[in-house]
Amino acid sequence: MDVTERLTFFASLYRIDQNPVLGMWLLYITIIILTIIVYKLGFAKKLPIGKSVIIYILLILGCTILTFFGVFLPVAEGLVVAALILIIYKIRLRQQKKAGSTEQG
Where does the chain cross the membrane (predicted)? Predict the structure, then answer.
């Protein structure tokens, strides 16, 4: 069995099999960006700057482990789906609040 057949979409998109160093960095950055988006859309609360910095540092460190899993498991793809679901949720919530405020006012 060829390793390239088992790569996930993002791993094969970044050609990790041909250029592993650049491919892993690109996958790492992709996972960090998607994780930050999912965190901001679904879980972030208003925190002081010091606590936010600590959270983002720990989030970036955790993404290191996720990157190694992301080569053969659909980590980045799952984060894309989670981000899309949270975006749809936020849009619908905003529309619902806007419709509720116009009914009351």
Answer: 20-41, 53-72
Q: What is the C-alpha to C-alpha distance for residues 86 and 79, in angstroms, rounded to an integer?
A: 10
Domain ranges of the chain: 3-104
**Pairwise CA distance, residues 99 & 95, whole Å:** 6
Which of 89, 1, 75 shows the shortest CA–CA distance to 35?
75
- CA distances in angstroms from 17 to 2, 53, 80, 91, 94, listed in the order given: 11, 34, 22, 38, 43
Helix or strand (DSSP H, E) at 13:
helix 9-13
Distance CA 47, CA 58 (A): 15
User: Which residue in this structure is represented by tokens 């992709």?
Assistant: 30
Residue 70: Cβ within 10 Å count: 25
4/61: higher pLDDT: 61
For residues 19, 66, 39, 61, the Cα torsion angle rounded to the nearest 10 degrees is -90
